[in-house]
Write a structure and sequence with these properties.
Rossmann fold, 7 helices, about 40% helix, NAD(P)-bd_dom_sf
């Protein structure tokens, strides 16, 4: 018997690839949105460009009636990391980072609530250690810090509707995103962890599964570091 549906943004990414089997094993159904389909086929996939808020609104207009009454969780995994220094940023690049990483999920949640759902129980925002420690890519770090603030504010706003909003802050994780960093930069990050190793997508996915499930029913408005002890 299905436990309900979980909407995942950035569903074609490496952490999603680890998360989807865990959710399926626990009898959740998956609705996934991204600019390209994931390799895992046992989901409802919809193409959606999160850098365009109008595309987000169209996605909901076209599909919400198919799943909104059964959605129990939302996981915001979508994010872009240009890995650019400050002097390389244009206004358009800055805006794209902020839109994909923060603006899109605000309007996605806002419009879902406007349409109306009584099934939604848990929202998990995927931020970054960069939100606390900073980054040589200032737009990325700023967007993730904004996501933390948004999650805290949504926790307060949605508490009366019994919707939990929690944030995870991964550190250096073995994904295609981290591959954009030089070997020296990755080694620097690993050396600053207590674990002295790079994290895996599965280690992040396990925490997301816990936060989506009722096993975390007394965790509200939390920010959870998953960074091997990089920040204490």
């Amino acid at each position: 018997m299905s436990k309900g549906k979980v909407l995942i943004t950035g569903v074609s990414g490496d952490i999603s690839k680890a998360l989807i089997p865990l959710l399926l094993e626990q009898d959740y159904e998956i609705i996934g949105i991204d600019i390209k389909p994931p390799s895992i086929k046992e989901i409802q996939f919809y193409e959606c460009d999160l850098s365009n808020v109008e595309a987000v609104e169209k996605f909901l207009l076209d599909t919400a009636s198919l799943w909104i009454d059964e959605v129990v969780g939302i996981v915001h995994l979508a994010g872009i990391y240009p890995n650019q220094k400050m002097s390389n940023y244009s206004v358009d690049m800055w805006e794209k980072v902020q839109t994909v990483n923060v603006k899109s999920i605000f309007f996605l949640i806002n419009n879902i609530l406007k349409i109306g759902t009584e099934s939604l129980e848990s929202i998990v925002m995927v931020s970054s250690t960069a939100a606390k420690a900073g980054s040589k890519d200032p737009a990325y770090a700023a967007s993730k810090a904004a996501l933390n603030g948004l999650a805290k504010s949504l926790s307060l706003t949605l508490a009366d509707q019994r919707i939990r909003v929690n944030t995870i802050l991964p550190g250096i994780i073995d994904t295609s995103m981290s591959q954009r960093q030089s070997a020296e930069r990755k080694e620097y990050h690993v050396s600053n962890t207590l674990a002295k190793k790079i994290g895996t997508p599965e280690e992040v996915a396990n925490v997301i599964l816990f936060l989506i499930s009722n096993k975390s029913s007394y965790i509200w408005g939390a920010s959870i570091d998953i960074n091997g002890g990089m920040t204490l």
